Design the sequence.
């Protein structure tokens, strides 16, 4: 069974991510197939617009993409598989391709949209539509597995209003369609029952503009985080992770207490790395951020080789042994030093040999 189904229908190129048992988590083969398809359609005069959806367990829609295949990451490290390097280089190149895609790009973010799923949905140009639904579960949950929000996550999270980006990056909190729109990570919300008709309509010439108008006129939906925006901006704008957590713990409200407890479960080291990452990316182009992230992800697997790194330990605890009891090193937010953090931002390559050297 093909992990990606691509077809031209009318004047639309339609892609279905087709790995439903894995919630369409991206494999290297999927990244390569999607990249090849998008490159071909960019030059194909028959294709006027492109749309991407995920296959759910009961049919199309219901799940978009749960991220990169973290089990593959774990196995590749243990086996010394060089495809791990290819995975990140080619995934980030795909994110860049989508960001500058020359044709309208429509993504149906129904169900789970996390990690690498954000990388193929959040980067559309001004000629893109990112459609959420009442079933959308969006997150960048990488700090829970000892990683950081990659796939250009530093760049798009840094451009969320206020300090929403820092909040989403550090906590990995799952948000719905309304909050995704408020965070500028989606363009509008459609009821999931309307998705099949919207998908079929894209074959027709004026469908993109009609869909854009529908999203613009759609009724607003619940935005639970809106009531916390002042607190999010107050605490997640503080200078350090330690300041953020201590401020939340001193607050005493239910939201602040729960948020602090959530942060205490994440990798202390990667919380510090992630905060530095988002704040650097706020002043970068996407290309510069992707190059930085490529360096960072290499360091996640190479600074402490084998199973010693935070990422391997996080994946072990979440997806391999599933004991949900990661042994972080260092174990406390207060124990992380600036030297530990800065090591993740040192490039393993000279500029001319960088894997993403050719991105423009």
Sequence:
């Amino acid at each position: 069974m093909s992990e990606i189904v691509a077809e031209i229908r009318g004047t639309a190129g339609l892609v279905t991510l087709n790995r439903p048992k894995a919630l369409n988590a991206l494999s290297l083969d999927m990244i390569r197939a999607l990249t090849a398809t998008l490159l071909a359609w960019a030059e194909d005069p028959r294709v006027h617009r492109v749309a991407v959806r995920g296959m759910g367990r009961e049919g199309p829609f219901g799940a978009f993409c749960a991220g990169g295949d973290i089990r593959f990451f774990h196995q590749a490290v243990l086996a010394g598989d060089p495809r791990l390097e290819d995975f990140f280089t080619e995934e980030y190149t795909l994110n860049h391709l989508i960001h500058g895609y020359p044709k309208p790009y429509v993504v149906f973010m129904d169900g789970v949209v996390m990690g690498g799923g954000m990388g193929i949905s959040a980067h559309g140009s001004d000629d893109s539509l990112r459609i959420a639904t009442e079933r959308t579960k969006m997150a960048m949950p990488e700090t829970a597995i000892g990683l950081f929000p990659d796939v250009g996550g530093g760049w798009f999270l840094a451009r969320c209003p206020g300090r929403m980006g820092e909040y989403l990056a550090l906590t990995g909190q799952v948000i719905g369609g309304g909050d995704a729109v408020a965070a500028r990570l989606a363009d509008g919300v459609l009821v999931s029952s309307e998705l099949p008709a919207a998908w079929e309509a894209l074959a027709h010439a004026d469908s993109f503009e009609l869909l854009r108008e529908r999203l613009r006129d759609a009724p607003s939906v619940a935005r639970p985080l809106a009531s916390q925006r002042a607190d999010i901006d107050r605490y997640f704008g503080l200078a350090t992770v330690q300041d953020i957590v201590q401020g939340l713990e001193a607050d005493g409200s239910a939201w602040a207490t729960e948020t602090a407890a959530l942060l205490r479960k994440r990798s202390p080291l990667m919380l510090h790395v992630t905060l530095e990452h988002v704040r650097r990316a706020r002043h970068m182009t996407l290309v510069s951020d992707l190059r930085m992230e490529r360096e960072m992800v290499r360091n996640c697997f190479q600074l402490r080789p084998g199973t010693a790194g935070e990422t391997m330990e996080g994946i072990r605890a979440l997806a391999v042994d599933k004991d949900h009891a990661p042994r972080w090193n260092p174990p406390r937010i207060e124990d992380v030093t600036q030297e530990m953090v800065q090591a993740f931002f040192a490039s393993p390559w000279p500029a001319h040999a960088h894997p993403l050297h050719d991105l423009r």
Observations:
- The first strand starts at residue 4 and ends at 9.
